[in-house]
């Protein structure tokens, strides 16, 4: 048993609480109490202690594109070509090294759970590795070595566009059919379900998965009570093609195939009709906003406030890892809405922290991650309030300081399942900066 005294802690209410003692036994929180000063034998956590952050949408290998795609003009589609060139180069060994460093960067940023939307399954021209889940294993092992939880969102990806075959690079993503995808993903489910790793399902997009195959994936996930994610309406042209060829918006098509529901997360959901918003809301689905990627790729600003009003929940993701900073993702949801609507304060610090913690965790299948509460897993993140960005913060506005001022570099300590993995801003397992520099060294397209 270990006691931690938190200078400030967020227990789920509208403000932080001062002087909170968290008792941890093994992997779980076993008591939460108040104390004006640090009790003898307790470890002091200076700053604001939060539940572990959930990065609900990640493509780990995209991290290798950071800064290298910032030259010249273009669009999402020109960026995608650069991403495909990178995808050509990876194998299980190189992907493990890259993902371990990226997940280490996430740990330093206070992320204790990652949802890895994984579609880089096979070798050249779609030839399976001797172990068909070798790339999946590389990701799961990498997360374990970085000390964070992972939900491997195994993505079905069959086509290069609506009604078109995959190109040479996209062949690496495809199992050939939804039925073959289900066989391979069942193997992943059985192998990679552990106390710190889980498996979910994903439909890459309406471009990459036909309607009958969507239903196959959705039914497979529902039968096993697994989370199901999909890229939805990230680009206007995606909507236009779907309507022209299939007579429905992407959300309408997913609804028709039985995909929407409480276990479904729509990633991006940037270009939605009013009917789309209503469908996602009435089904209680989650919307994973990835604002730093959405602005980096010139995707647009999604209707976050309208989705919440309709009944949807929000989660947050760093997606292509233009930056890895869930505090930046959280405030960007609100600040982008201000730009789009000329209205301030549609999302509070509390609602954005819920998106970054419990609602994000739930979208990844970690429903027990309910916050700093008795019986919950002991995943804690302490944000320093003594840096230049947060100095002078009082308990009354500690949550607002975290969301609207702090950044990943303000994270001081991170704990997963009762085990400290980051202390004083340093990863205890390996030198993350050195590994990133080594892995990313050399020319990149």
Q: What radius of gyration results from the CA coordinates?
A: 21 Å
According to CATH, the fold-level topology of the largest domain is: TIM Barrel
- Portion in strands: 15-25%
Identify low-pLDDT runs.
Answer: none
Tell me which CATH architecture of the largest domain applies here.
Answer: Alpha-Beta Barrel
Query: Helix share of residues?
Result: 25-40%
Oligomeric organization of the protein chains = single chain
Largest sheet, if any?
Answer: 8 strands, mixed
Mean pLDDT, nearest integer? 96
Task: Find the structural class using helix and strand composition.
Answer: alpha/beta
Shape: globular
Can you describe this structure?
There is one protein chain. With 445 residues, the chain is of the alpha/beta class. It folds into two domains: 2-51 and 372-427, Urease, subunit C, domain 1, CATH 2.30.40; 53-229 and 313-363, TIM Barrel. It is built from 15 helices and 16 strands. It has helices spanning 76-88, 92-108, 134-146, 178-192, 211-223, 236-246, 250-256, 274-282, 291-296, 304-310, 326-341, 349-356, 358-363, 398-404, 432-440; strands at residues 2-9, 17-25, 28-34, 43-51, 53-58, 111-118, 149-156, 197-203, 228-232, 264-268, 286-289, 313-316, 380-383, 411-416, 419-423, 426-427. An eight-stranded mixed sheet has the order 3-2-1-4-13-14-15-16. A hairpin with a 2-residue loop joins strand 15 (419-423) and strand 16. Helix 4 (178-192) runs parallel beside helix 5.
């Amino acid at each position: 048993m270990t006691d931690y005294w938190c200078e400030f802690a967020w227990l789920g209410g509208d403000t932080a609480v001062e002087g909170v003692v968290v008792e941890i036994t093994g992997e779980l929180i076993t008591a939460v109490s108040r104390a004006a000063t640090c009790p003898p034998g307790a470890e002091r956590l200076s700053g604001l202690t939060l539940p572990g952050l959930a990065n609900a949408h990640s493509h780990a290998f995209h991290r290798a594109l950071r800064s290298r795609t910032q030259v010249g003009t273009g669009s999402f589609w020109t960026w995608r070509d650069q991403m495909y060139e990178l995808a050509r180069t990876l194998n299980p060994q190189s992907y493990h090294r890259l993902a371990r460093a990226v997940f280490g960067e996430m740990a330093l940023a206070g992320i204790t759970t990652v949802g890895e939307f994984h579609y880089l399954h096979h070798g050249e021209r779609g030839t399976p590795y001797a172990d068909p889940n070798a790339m999946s294993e590389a990701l799961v092992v990498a997360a374990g070595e970085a000390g964070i939880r992972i939900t491997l969102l195994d993505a079905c990806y069959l086509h290069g566009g609506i009604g078109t075959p995959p190109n040479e690079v996209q062949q690496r993503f495809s199992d050939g059919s939804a039925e073959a995808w289900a066989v391979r993903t069942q193997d992943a489910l059985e192998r990679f379900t552990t106390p710190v790793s889980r498996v979910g399902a994903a439909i890459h997009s309406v471009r990459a998965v036909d309607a009958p195959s969507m239903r196959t994936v959705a039914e497979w996930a529902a039968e096993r009570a697994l989370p199901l994610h999909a890229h939805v309406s990230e680009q206007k042209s995606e909507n236009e093609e779907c309507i022209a060829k299939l007579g429905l918006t992407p959300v309408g098509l997913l609804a028709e195939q039985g995909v929407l529901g409480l276990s479904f997360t729509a990633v991006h959901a940037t270009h939605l009709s009013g009917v789309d918003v209503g469908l996602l809301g009435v089904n209680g689905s989650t919307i994973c906003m990835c604002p730093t990627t959405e602005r980096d790729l010139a995707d647009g600003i999604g209707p976050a406030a309208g989705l919440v009003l309709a009944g949807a929940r929000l989660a947050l993701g760093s997606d292509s890892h233009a930056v890895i900073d869930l505090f930046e993702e959280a405030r960007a949801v609100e600040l982008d809405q201000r730009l789009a609507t000329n209205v301030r304060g549609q999302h509070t610090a509390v609602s954005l922290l819920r998106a970054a913690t419990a609602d994000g965790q739930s979208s990844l299948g970690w429903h027990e991650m309910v916050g700093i509460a008795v019986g919950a897993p002991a995943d804690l993140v302490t944000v320093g309030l003594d840096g230049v960005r947060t100095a002078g913060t009082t308990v009354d506005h500690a949550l607002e300081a975290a969301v609207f001022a702090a950044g990943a570099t303000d994270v001081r300590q991170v704990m997963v399942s009762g085990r400290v993995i980051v202390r004083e801003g340093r990863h205890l397992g390996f030198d993350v900066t050195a590994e990133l520099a080594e892995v990313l060294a050399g020319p990149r397209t």
